[in-house]
Each structure stands twice: as C-alpha cells, then as structure tokens.
Specification:
The complex is a heterodimer of chains A (107) and B (122). Chain A contains no helices and eleven strands. Chain A has 107 residues and is an all-beta fold. In chain A, the strands form two sheets. In chain A, strands 2, 4, 5, 6, 9, 10 and 11 form a seven-stranded mixed β-sheet that branches. In chain A, a hairpin with a 3-residue loop joins β5 and β6. Chain A is globular, with a radius of gyration of 13 Å. In chain B, strands 2, 4, 5, 6, 9, 10 and 11 form a seven-stranded mixed β-sheet that branches. Chain B is mainly β. The radius of gyration of chain B is 13 Å and the shape is globular. Classes of the chains: A mainly beta (107), B mainly beta (122). At the A-B interface, β4, β5 and β10 of A face β5 and β10 of B.
C-alpha cells in the first residue's frame, strides 16, 4: 500500500499569511494526488485534483504542485473560512489511500 | 445540483450485519463509478469500497474485503454497502462519494454525502 505522510500535523497561522502544506508518498505516484478540505462537522470537498489541476468553484488562492513523491498545497493569504483539516489522497494504485491530515488553526 | 444522501446507520452489536444506502440525485447516476469512504471518530479518512458503473467490478481494501459488499441499483439511483461480521473498529461515519467523471480512470472523489454514523458496540 502507498503511504502518504502529511506535515505538519498542525499549523497555526494568522489570517492573511500564505502557507504551504506537504504530502509525501512512500513511492512515486506521478501526479495522481488530490487534496481535500474538511471543515468541522462537514463532509470533505475536493480542492485540487491531479496535483495541480483546479476545481470549479474553488477559490483561486488554493493551488497545488508536485509530482513523484513530493506534493504541496499552497494557500495564498489564508482567509478565516480556511481553518480546517486538509487531506491528500493518492489514486495511483489500489488501495486508494489518504494522508493523516494537516489541521490549519488560527494563531 | 448533485446530492448524495446516506441512510441506514445506527448502533449494532459486534458480529452482526448492517446495510447502508445512498440516494443520488442531480446527475446521471449510471454514468459514474461510486464509492464509500469512512472516518472513525476524530480520525482520518479511509476508502472502503468502489463500484463500476454497471456494478460488474468492485474494489476493496484488505481491511473490509470479504466482510463488506458494495452494490448499486441504477434504476433507483441508489448505492449500497452491506456490512457483515462488524467489528468495533468499523465504528465510523460512512460517506457515499462519487468518483470523477472519466470512466474507470478518475479515482478521486468529486462529491460527498453528509455521512451516516455506524457504531459497533455491545
């Protein structure tokens, strides 16, 4: 199984800061990596597909990059509504797996 | 508007069975691969099962293979998860999710239902 390691586990930031979240795969997964946001008591929603492809309706401050084993989710100037948990997911091979998540909290 | 609504969760004893349902609307259900993803309390996400558009192909992780069965009824736009031999570690919120639009190739989840809670306890 492909393991995804997300770091940091928790990130404390001030609204307006720009940040990067990391997701590292245990083996190369090309660009078969997707990012989700989960707000408290809500279901997840997809933010970025295939490492860097945008999703309709997602604010442009969210962007993704990476390939192979190292991936990054960038949030340009964090807004108050962005404080959530972020998960990465790989679709390169079965079983589909998720990272353990990064919690973005207000400093 | 795409809608996925799960039902069937509840409290069940270890070793017993439970069947979850997901009612889909707002899109052509028969054109999409569908899936179940679960989340244990205060934990991360775990993919549980995927089914092809016709139902002829199914995929499971080892953690549920042989115990869970995913199925669908395209005429009713409904997805199901039959869970047998339930264990305490199956306690979770179960989400119905739609795979991306490229048939047999888009293994991310583009829409999710609100989830239904399953508690396995004596």
């Amino acid at each position: 199984d492909i393991m995804l390691t997300q770091s940091p586990a928790t990130l404390s930031v001030t609204p307006g800061e720009s940040i990067s979240l990391s997701c590292r795969a245990s083996q190369s997964i090309s660009t078969n990596l997707h990012w989700y946001q989960q707000k408290p008591n809500e279901s997840p929603r997809v933010l970025i597909k295939y490492a860097s492809q945008t999703i309709s309706g997602i604010p442009s401050r969210f962007s993704g990059s990476g390939s192979g084993t190292d991936f990054t989710l960038n949030i340009n100037r964090v807004e108050p509504e962005d404080f959530s948990v972020y998960y990465c997911q790989q679709s390169n091979s079965w079983p589909l797996t998720f990272g353990s998540g990064t919690k973005l909290e207000i400093k | 508007e795409v809608q996925l609504v799960e039902s069937g969760g509840g409290l069940v004893q270890p070793g017993r069975s439970l069947k979850l349902s997901c009612a889909a609307s707002g899109f052509t259900f028969s054109n999409y691969y569908m899936a179940w993803v679960r989340q244990a309390p205060k934990k991360g996400l775990e993919w549980v099962a995927t089914i092809s558009t016709s139902g002829s192909r199914t995929y499971y992780p080892d953690s549920v293979k042989g115990r869970f069965t995913i199925s669908r009824d395209n005429a009713k736009s409904s997805l199901y998860l039959q869970m047998n031999s339930l264990k305490s570690e199956d306690t979770a919120t179960y989400y119905c999710a739609r795979h991306g639009p490229k048939l047999g190739a888009d293994w991310y989840f583009d829409f999710w239902g609100p989830g239904t809670m399953v508690t396995v306890s004596s």
